[in-house]
Design goal:
Distance between the termini: 6 Å
Structural class: alpha+beta
Shape: globular
CATH topology of the largest domain: Ribosomal Protein S5, domain 2
Number of strands: 11
Mean pLDDT: 97
Bound molecules: adenosine-5'-triphosphate, L-homoserine
Keywords: Amino-acid biosynthesis, ATP-binding, Cytoplasm, Kinase, Nucleotide-binding, Threonine biosynthesis, Transferase
GO molecular function, one term: homoserine kinase activity
EC number: 2.7.1.39
Family: Belongs to the GHMP kinase family. Homoserine kinase subfamily.
Largest sheet: 7 strands, mixed
CATH architecture of the largest domain: 2-Layer Sandwich
Helix content: 25-40%
Number of helices: 10
GO cellular component, one term: cytoplasm
Length: 287
């Protein structure tokens, strides 16, 4: 049995802790034979546990503590701590692992509830489970999610060669927002989502770049951000935003300007890589 989970790009500007889209980079786990202990074969580095302490197994055991141990092979194209939902991909894979091995027949709503409880917010786990664009709200432990189709566009990611842990990136956010600013921030988010639903990427892009919830506090943590956003403005992208908690800088652009934008970002000679990505429509899959 194999389980595949897509990467995700959360926030998309003003959709902080609420909006995310699934993209075509993947975590894949292959479940092999039963074993006396959990053992994960992976090439993700020494800091990632290979036993029951790995987030995959700790998540699966939270869902079903009596799960029988197996040998597992884990591969991932999703870079760790870069704002592309690596932790959510593992959590969603862990829930699916318990679901399939213990034949729990979990619904998507149940998977989303467990995943949000573990991750703390729904914006990465929801599209990792459902695919495509998801708008979700978790308040007082209750999660409500709406799936939608992301309008036709390409995603261009600049992935820096350094990590930024979500916990560190959340540490620079204010604990409170003045009422007037919160109302303005919420109106920007409302129009961004309405424009995405209408397929109006010009208006959506303008609102995505007007976020007041998180980017202005975090931008200084990602020194490449302004130069890449400028390329987006010069070359006709719809929007450039900080993916998840960063440091990946994500651009939404028409496919017609994709190659030109990729070359322009590469010509900045920054320390990192540039990837063109597409929306994943499926979410978690088990084969
Ligand atoms: N394949 C994996 N196996 C086990 N743990 C993992 C794996 N991938 C990620 N993690 C854990 O998740 C941590 C990264 O999570 P973090 O929330 O900081 O970043 P992210 O999920 O990549 O980005 P973001 O949430 O901003 O999209 C890693 O440091 C590691 O502890
Ligand atoms: N909404 C989250 C996504 C990363 O986990 C944040 O921006 O901190």
């Amino acid at each position: 049995m194999k389980i595949q989970v897509p990467a995700t790009s959360a926030n998309i500007g003003p959709g902080f802790d609420s909006v995310g889209v699934a993209l075509n980079l993947y975590l894949e786990i292959e479940v092999l034979e039963e074993s006396d202990n959990w053992h994960i074969v992976h090439y993700l580095g020494d800091e990632i546990a290979s036993d029951e302490n790995n987030l995959l197994i700790s998540t699966a055991l939270k869902i079903f503590p009596e799960l029988k141990a197996h040998k597992i092979v884990m591969k991932s194209d999703i870079p760790l701590a870069r704002g592309l939902g690596s932790s959510s991909s593992v959590i969603v894979a862990g829930i699916e692992l318990a679901n399939k091995l213990a034949n729990l027949k979990l619904t998507n709503e149940e998977k989303l509830k467990f995943a949000t409880e573990i991750e703390g917010h729904p914006d990465n786990v929801a599209p990792a489970i459902l695919g495509d664009l998801v708008i979700a709200s978790t308040v007082a432990d209750e999660t409500t999610a709406i799936e939608a189709e992301f309008p036709n566009a390409t995603f261009i990611a600049f992935i820096p060669n350094y990590e930024l842990l979500t916990s560190d990136s959340r540490g620079v956010l204010p604990t409170e927002l003045p009422y007037k600013e919160a109302v303005a921030a919420s109106s920007i988010a409302n129009v961004a989502i309405a424009a995405l639903m209408e397929g109006d990427l010009d208006k959506a892009g303008k609102m995505i770049e007007s976020d007041l919830f998180h980017e202005k506090y975090r931008r200084s943590l990602v020194k490449e951000f302004e130069a890449i956003r400028q390329i987006g403005h010069d070359k006709g992208a719809y929007a450039t935003y900080l993916s998840g908690a960063g440091p990946t800088v994500m651009m939404i652009a028409p496919e017609t300007v994709e190659n030109e934008i990729v070359s322009s970002i590469e010509s900045l000679d920054l320390d990192g890589k540039v990837l063109s990505l597409k929306v994943d429509k499926e979410g978690v899959l088990c084969v």
